[in-house]
Amino acid sequence: xxxxxxxxxxxxxxxxxxxxxxxxxxxxxxxxxxxxxxxxxxxxxxxxxxxxxxxxxxxxxxxxxxxxxxxxxxxxxxxxxxxxxxxxxxxxxxxxxxxxxxxxxxxxxxxxxxxxxxxxxxxxxxxxxxxxxxxxxxxxxxxxxxxxxxxxxxxxxxxxxxxxxxxxxxxxxxxxxxxxxxxxxxxxxxxxxxxxxxxxxxxxxxxxxxxxxxxxxxxxxxxxxxxxxxxxxxxxxxxxxxxxxxxxxxxxxxxxxxxxxxxxxxxxxxxxxxxxxxxxxxxxxxxxxxxxxxxxxxxxxxxxxxxxxxxxxxxxxxxxxxxxxxxxxxxxxxxxxxxxxxxxxxxxxxxxxxxxxxxxxxxxxxxxxxxxxxxxxxxxxxxxxxxxxxxxxxxxxxxxxxxxxxxxxxxxxxxxxxxxxxxxxxxxxxxxxxxxxxxxxxxxxxxxxxxxxxxxxxxxxxxxxxxxxxxxxxxxxxxxxxxxxxxxxxxxxxxxxxxxxxxxxxxxxxxxxxxxxxxxxxxxxxxxxxxxxxxxxx
Amino acid sequence: xxxxxxxxxxxxxxxxxxxxxxxxxxxxxxxxxxxxxxxxxxxxxxxxxxxxxxxxxxxxxxxxxxxxxxxxxxxxxxxxxxxxxxxxxxxxxxxxxxxxxxxxxxxxxxxxxxxxxxxxxxxxxxxxxxxxxxxxxxxxxxxxxxxxxxxxxxxxxxxxxxxxxxxxxxxxxxxxxxxxxxxxxxxxxxxxxxxxxxxxxxxxxxxxxxxxxxxxxxxxxxxxxxxxxxxxxxxxxxxxxxxxxxxxxxxxxxxxxxxxxxxxxxxxxxxxxxxxxxxxxxxxxxxxxxxxxxxxxxxxxxxxxxxxxxxxxxxxxxxxxxxxxxxxxxxxxxxxxxxxxxxxxxxxxxxxxxxxxxxxxxxxxxxxxxxxxxxxxxxxxxxxxxxxxxxxxxxxxxxxxxxxxxxxxxxxxxxxxxxxxxxxxxxxxxxxxxxxxxxxxxxxxxxxxxxxxxxxxxxxxxxxxxxxxxxxxxxxxxxxxxxxxxxxxxxxxxxxxxxxxxxxxxxxxxxxxxxxxxxxxxxxxxxxxxxxxxxxxx
Lengths: 538, 538
Known about the structure:
20 helices
């Protein structure tokens, strides 16, 4: 059998001992000799497994409080010598090959996470283990390096299937895992030592890289990786139907999912170029979708849409994909949700290109937010504090003390790129809905203008006839809340709001001209609430 | 001397041999015994340095084609035993301490970069070296682990100053470097093995972490790191004056510098919330600054500004920082440039808060663009192809075949967040200048509207009186170029352009409605150029 290696002699030295008896038992059943060290040997002996003491291989005692157990000319040679080229030399030196190392390392991370003192940390830097693992991995053509308890079962099965052999494929897989394991281990040690002695350092590992069709643009190649040792909801999303996901889809799916995953009721976000142009939350999914769509029906075409609940047929029928009137069909790029009912899938699949994405929204967003720029890395906490207060700063009071709506407004502004303005409303049937937003502008007045213009259109569109439009718009604008991600630097924004009929503004406050801004509100009968918490997002 | 260790016995085994004779010579002069292996021993002997053969320490021969040289009970013990706790045991076992390891590893990277075959790669995975280094580092209380040629000189100086001793501080520093070195090494090996066997993986390391005042917002903690083994122009920028840089400053400085660093003539970029709201290139720095500022004088307040040449006094006097009229003073957050003349610095320092940044713009932007999102990593090529063609697609031809201006237009659109529209112009005195831009909109019509409105204002502002404004604006708009980062999905944008008097449009093309878009141009006497290259940027 090409590339097969009979496992005759195994060195086992494990810190994590679960599963080891089962593996050793299986190896024994194929006549394998097991060499082992201190604690591992004890466990194996107690489990009734006959073990060769490592000292009889090394020719040296276990020494120095366990710092020296396996490290020796004999053991290293037994792992490292080339079974072809070096066979005669090994015979002369009386080196008997070891065909497998089963080793996991001192639990350095456990002590690090526990904040152990430096001496305990250092004692838990494994020296022998990585040497055995790295040596076995280097000689993968002849030796198996087993470092992961979760691989035991596959190994047992393969031994069973072959009568005690492991294939080259298996050994290559184990070798790669082995070097990744020692790389992770030293990454941990290096960062911990840096930190203990006053320097912060970070090491990140990513794997399962897949090439994307292209990057942000067709002339840019792109790849997508999953972070090692982290939850990967984005990487692990499932494409149930449709064209391959693009780089931009991937970014927008994350953005849309992040917006809706925090919502308790049925939420819908419609994202275009990383900004939500539609956003709604309420008791009914179809209605939430309709209202989100109404927030910017032009931009919604070709958008990425996320729902936070299982999607039902009634909801997606809004897309009118099978309408006889082609212009009535609403084309979107992506629909992402935690799940889809069967009939929903069936309906959506009528459109060849639409991507249907199953996305696990129960997973948190990880510890930090990372931004890589030109050989440097910026790390920050996620922006997950919505407000530190609600402080009424004006003479006028809001039309309604609708705390849910105030929070929704600031939430929407937080989701939009800075400078961000969001105008939100509670609809007459109780949904929280984005009427319009202004995004990504170099000055706030632009964003305010964009949000107002968009909102006026959204609200006007709700009127079927011409009669009463003005009154309807006026009433709705008066019920709406304008939220700003950061303070207003000048009162000019307030004048624009007043002209548009806005009656309530919510913003962090904190400008040196707050007084003038508040005065402008008072002059215009506008209620203003300070939240104390800015939400720049770029 | 507390924490000092006399270096009596040193193990030297280096792949990179530069500087080693000098270090060994210095060690010898303090009576140190030098133990060495194969190639290193030869170099030292040839250099006239007396060397103990490693075999007399290990008690074993060099074996298996060099795979076994240092790995042995004796050498590992000599590095690892605790000089306090284990002293008696070491005496019993006849282990003589080794106080320093000088070791750098097989040049795995060299062979990897050269695309060597797998057997050569594997032969160049160092096993003994990392073991010696890691063991010495673990025992840093007594042993020095020297892994970097660039540390030799400091070590020689310290030995000279102390008569052959190294301090605890030095050994701690070496220990941290050692674990970072082995972490880097195994990161390289792990990724190379993954790649050779069909999986892409990435490992990144960052150090020199410093805490920033806060992140994008005050309630978010933030840190700033330099990437290991990369050029770090952003991290290494020097704050010559002013308040500490914020997270947002840092991001914008990079953005602004990236915009101007590619320009040949004097360039100025004014960035606000990551978008350039002002941009100009030409023969005179002061004039370029003025024109960039005129692109959006409201947004320019509190902005981040970058120049690509040494900044001179005349340029910054435009800020009027010492004007008697306080309202005439132009406050900006940051000015970044490769350098500043002395009198410029003096002038700028009059303003306490202005940050003056020396930024090395000669450094490239690194291999890839990385985006980290929620446990996954997107990697793509930088967007560094401006256009694949210039194709005239309309009946009308541009007023002038100004290729430089066409490229400048597309360059400006590429710098702006999508959907991006940039209106640019060659001024009558020959400068390439951004008149106005539309950024970050969910639909292109919004961006077009923003860019046009801004440009009309920029141009109107140039007229001192009322006479002839309309004609002037009309003439200037006719000379301007409107550039779009991606195709126009509908002809509606063209109608807007026509209304505003735009005569030339440059865009990638590629919409299914290109024909209608071109027809709209022809109807309006507008010239249109297709570039074939999209520039989404989010």
